[in-house]
Amino acid sequence: MAFNLYQEWNQKRLPIINGIIYEDGSIQRMIITDKNKGRSVELGSKLHLKTLKDAEELFLVEIDILCTKIDDENMITVSCGDGGYGGEGYVAIETLDHGKIKWIAFFEESNPFERVEVVDNLIYAYNNLNEEWIFEINNPTNIVICSI
């Protein structure tokens, strides 16, 4: 049976993957690095949810939605929250017109994202580590992490 990201999302479960998961199941892994002035995120490898499922390396975690914002200008709903293990956080984008997942950013070391804001084409996600993570709506792998 194929993995259905939308079905898992509706059951409040997400794959445990550091990176961006797209609606078609493709994944851009992301690597969080610690630097003297804070943390940054770098591109990792690309893969697909089907590959992980076939290799029996696809693991899920239950999530809690902590904040949701509707952005009529970009025609999206943005939500954020945490995973079941404490250090995890996610940001998810769904289209307003069809409720389809555009992308989900999930990180095991981000800590929970407790609130989000949408300004122009950017999403500002705030975690409980006093960090602001900035995602571009149409290029979510371009991430900036700022201490606040």
Structural notes for this entry:
By secondary structure, this protein is mainly beta. The protein has a single domain (5-147), classed as Beta Barrel (Thrombin, subunit H), CATH 2.40.10. Helices cover 8% and strands 61% of the residues. The protein is built from two helices and twelve strands. Strands 1-5-6-7-8-2-3-4 form an eight-stranded antiparallel beta sheet. The radius of gyration is 14 Å and the shape is globular. The termini are far apart. The mean pLDDT is 94.
Main sheet record: 8 strands, antiparallel
CATH class: Mainly Beta
Tell me the β content. Answer: over 45%
Work out the helicity level: under 10%
CATH fold type: Thrombin, subunit H
Question: Which structural class do the helices and strands define?
Answer: mainly beta
The total count of strands amounts to: 12
Tertiary shape: globular
> What is the number of helical segments per DSSP (H or I, 4+ residues)?
2
The residue-averaged pLDDT reads 94
Low-pLDDT sequence parts: none
What is the alpha-carbon Rg in Å?
14 Å
Order of neighbouring strands in the sheet with most strands: 1-5-6-7-8-2-3-4
Strand/helix succession:
HEEEEHEEEEEEEE
- Report, as a whole number of angstroms, the end-to-end distance: 44 Å
Number of domains: 1
What is the CATH-assigned architecture?
A: Beta Barrel
